[in-house]
Design brief:
It contains 14 helices and 18 strands. The protein is an alpha/beta fold. The protein has two domains: about 280 residues, TIM Barrel (Alpha-Beta Barrel); about 130 residues, no CATH class. The strands form five sheets. It has an eight-stranded parallel β-sheet with strand order 3-11-10-8-7-6-5-4. It has a three-stranded antiparallel β-sheet with strand order 9-13-12, with no helix packed on it. The protein has a three-stranded antiparallel β-sheet with strand order 14-18-17. Helix 5 links the parallel strand 7 and strand 8. The mean pLDDT is about 95.
Length: about 475
């Protein structure tokens, strides 16, 4: 393997190894601090991070507000307190080595307020802010206000070009790097555009090369590009390392740090990672953000797939092909279906999926009574964890705090499920029935000899292994 040399990133020389930030209490200050102590850039997630009481016990994020607006304010307060707590932990563990970054979701509820509150409360503890899931035009303004480096996450040269021309050119000196996240291989939310086929992955090299060429036009030839998504062994990327066409390159590891001793996920979750097979991670569009995302195809995902499969179009009037009457809800309010869809509906009802729920697209989905109650309860309990949520129809931007559409029962409450799996990762039912984000290379845990006999490394052992290779 080629020798791995330090690169200039965020104003200092660091190893070109970046820990990917995994939201809602999965990448925390402990993992970030140990990664930074190993000489790279450690990243804690500032998306609904944990905070602690005086005894160091995690404070459960319980919401008491009667309205969505009130619960949203509680969520912002939790986010700021948690981010400050994680920054302090990471800083103390890093001991001045490496870099400590905080990762934000631009489409999270109250994003600017949370980012600003954390940076104000953790001055000097955070060296860089990374941000994706959307177009974070304001990221450079926030970075300039606090004099920290910023690292936008993009999936195409075109996206970065738009960000640069609109805003980032005004804070060029603080652009620490650009994260290119492969939209077909990365875990969590993915940046696939409407013109890209989710079933046809593209080679990242020409896409990253196009990004570098554009960056050179902007005078950013020495600004690192951080390759994220699909990175496991650096040997697989030797034609990237030291390649003058690409310029300075670092590599982000999101999935591999899950399986370390310092990782806060439960032991059952860690053991589950060792059993995954190729193809077990499913690229889907169920997220309430509207983005594609990659997650383990467990009971939770299969239930969402079932909801979408048990779906028929309807009309509120008899028109066109919709001529068959059907009664919806306890009052059996009439809608009209295509006659060919009636036998499908009757079969679903006989199988126990007796509750018909309307979607914003004039379709009905069919679920069990228990699932219907859970969906409706979750929609009512919305705390505004996203800037806009298609599941609950919340919007923090609209005057009436809705997105102007009907709530969509084909999606789910992402805050609820990620909090549950993060804090009940020692329970098998929590893993089966919650959203388990993962990169598509997670199956390699099971066939990588580094993890033979169930070995789980420390963060430092993982970093050393990455540097020495197979």
């Amino acid at each position: 393997m080629k020798p791995i040399n330090t690169i200039r990133m965020g104003g200092v020389d660091v190893l070109p190894l970046v820990e990917g930030g995994k939201g809602v209490a999965v990448s925390n200050g402990i993992t970030a601090g140990h990664w930074a102590a190993g000489g790279g850039a450690g990243t804690f997630s500032a998306v609904n991070p944990d905070s602690y009481d005086a005894n160091g016990t995690i404070i459960p994020q319980v919401y008491h507000g009667r309205t969505r607006r009130e619960r949203h304010e509680e969520l912002v307060a939790y986010g700021i307190a948690g981010g400050i707590a994680q920054a302090r932990r990471a800083h103390d563990i890093a001991g001045g080595s490496g870099r400590v970054h905080a990762n934000f979701l631009w489409e999270m509820g109250g994003a600017e307020r949370v980012i600003t509150g954390i940076l104000e409360g953790a001055k000097g503890l955070i060296h860089g802010i990374t941000c994706g899931a959307g177009m974070p035009y304001r990221l450079s303004d926030i970075a300039a206000k606090f004099n920290v480096h910023y690292y936008p996450i993009v999936s195409s040269a075109r996206a970065f070009g738009a960000l640069w021309k609109r805003a980032f050119h005004k804070a060029a000196d603080l652009l620490g790097g650009v994260v290119y996240e492969d939209p077909w291989l990365a875990g969590g939310h993915n940046g696939l555009s409407n013109s890209e086929d989710p079933a046809r992955p593209e080679d990242p090299f020409p896409r990253v090369l196009a990004l570098r060429k554009l960056m050179r036009e902007f005078g950013l030839g020495e600004t690192p590009i951080i390759m994220a998504g699909g990175v496991w062994w650096l040997e697989d990327w030797e034609h990237w390392i030291g390649n003058p066409e690409l310029g300075p390159i670092a590599f982000q590891f999101g999935t591999r740090p899950l399986l370390t001793q310092e990782s806060p996920i439960g032991e059952v979750w860690k053991r589950k990672l060792l059993t995954l097979q190729e193809g077990d991670v499913f690229l889907n569009r169920f997220s309430p953000t509207g983005f594609y995302s990659s997650a383990v195809n467990n009971n939770f995902i299969q239930d969402l797939r079932g909801r979408n499969d048990r779906q028929v179009a309807f009309s509120t009037e008899a028109a066109g092909e919709h001529t068959a009457e059907y009664g919806v809800g306890p009052r059996k309010r009439l809608v009209w279906l295509a006659p060919n869809d009636l036998p499908l509906v009757q079969a679903w009802e006989e199988a126990g999926f007796t509750e018909a729920l309307r979607t914003p697209d004039n379709t009905l989905i069919f679920v069990t009574p228990a699932s219907s109650r859970e969906i409706l309860d979750d929609q009512v309990a919305c705390m505004g964890c996203l800037s806009q949520c298609r599941f609950s129809n919340w919007s923090q931007h609209a005057p009436d705090l809705t997105n102007g559409k009907k709530a969509d029962p084909r999606s789910f409450c992402i805050q609820k499920t990620l909090q549950d799996i993060a804090h009940r990762g020692d329970e098998a039912d929590a893993l089966a029935n919650n959203l388990m984000f993962s990169g598509h290379n997670a199956f390699k845990f099971g066939n990588d000899p580094f993890y033979s006999n169930g070995f789980i490394p420390t963060v430092r052992q993982l970093v050393d292994r990455i540097l020495t290779g197979r």
